[in-house]
Design a protein that fits this description.
Number of helices: 3
Distance between the termini: 80 Å
Helix content: over 70%
Number of domains: 2
Largest sheet: 2 strands, antiparallel
């Protein structure tokens, strides 16, 4: 059997043949770019849907826990009602204060 001839042409000659652009190579390159774009788009859609799914589940869980704690207040006895209400008010004040501080930190500038 004969040996395969190794292509020693420069990369420029692969893109051009006799002064004209090799259309078959351009079609192949465009096809590969199209496939890569479809793959990247698919991965981005999967990542976005995963992020939106987890964040929506977290928001629903936190909201349901808040509603559960508020719905249990009427079921408590008078002895525990005052203590639980103080705890919930303190928790709300602490959460809102901490959130306000975390939102203000980026606006602080040191001269």
């Amino acid at each position: 059997m004969g040996k395969c001839k190794q292509n020693t042409d420069s990369p420029i000659k692969l893109f051009k043949s006799s002064g004209k652009i090799n259309r078959h190579l351009l079609i192949d390159i465009n096809f590969v770019i199209m496939i890569l774009n479809i793959y990247v788009l698919t991965v981005n859609v999967y990542i976005l849907s995963t992020v939106w799914g987890y964040s929506s589940a977290a928001i629903v869980t936190i909201s349901l826990l808040g509603l559960l704690s508020v719905s249990l207040i009427p079921c408590l006895q008078k002895v525990f009602l005052n203590t639980v209400l103080q705890f919930l008010v303190a928790l709300a004040v602490g959460a809102l204060s901490g959130d306000a501080m975390l939102h203000l930190i980026p606006h602080v500038s040191f001269y």
